[in-house]
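hey so u asked for the seq, here:
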Amino acid sequence: MSAVLVLRESEIRRLLDPAACVQAVEEALAAYSSGKAELPAVIGLDIPEHRGEIHIKAGHLHGGSHYAVKIASGFPENTELGISPNGGMVLVFDAMTGAPAAFLLDNGFITDLRTAAAGAVAAKHLARKEIHSVAVIGSGGQARYQTELIYLVREFREVKVWGRDPGRTARCVDDLKARFQLLGNDKGISFRTAGSAREAAAGADLVVTTTASRRPLVQAEWLKAGALIIAVGSDAPDKQELEVDVLARADRIIADSIPQCIRLGEIHHALEAGAISKEKICAELGEIASSGKPGRRTEQEIIVCDLTGVGVQDVASAALVLARARAAGVGERLQL
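ran it, structure tokens below
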């Protein structure tokens, strides 16, 4: 009789640490861009009467022992009910037989961490060697994760956070201060709220956008020479965080998946508006991670990295969790 390993969020959080997740995601993106992965199109499902959105992503890394299917949901009205707005799980299957191997009941944690891990990979290869100021557009969970994981690859001295809700933005700043203090990384770092997206982005060496906005928030004229813009939130065709003039002004544009970014994300909007041509998309992040193409070339170039989320990030993260759980004897075995 076969059995499936069941892991819950608290166990998964102990098994998947940020540094290991960054490494796993970097390797997965490199494999994807090298043609060593299978990646179907994203399935998006909206629940309009409750403002819910569900994303289903899947993937397989060639030679890997497992493939995975991730279901992640966002229901922002849940906050009014006193429950988390994010949910989901990852289903892991044996790549040889197709038999279910694990149910990872992570409530969206793997999605959160692997998304931030891709931002860290982008910062590692595309940010200036020395950065002082980071602008975070958005005040939700991803704003917190991105800031923490980017610090693993680039130290900084200032974080400016802007969000539409001043109260949530202030809480985000307080949470970041507490988290960095807990990690022992708070020395000399200034965390503060910004009064506008412009105030946050102006003078920043790195701008990371983490919202679910349907209208552009960041304009090209605000950006300093040498800035890196990591766009995270536009993971559906109707979402947009950057004015198309940001991509038009950029010296280089990088995608996590060129075919996917042409269908959704910031690149999609810029192409549709005629602000850029496909030829301006220089590379996929995985090509740079594998040293197939160059990362940042000069300290003055402006780079936009469009991260729409690739299924292999979920596969690599889930595989790491599964391997560590088996080694540690963690989880519940469910007989089928």
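Residues 9 and 106 are 4 Å apart (CA to CA). The chain has eleven helices and 16 strands.
lmk if thats what u needed
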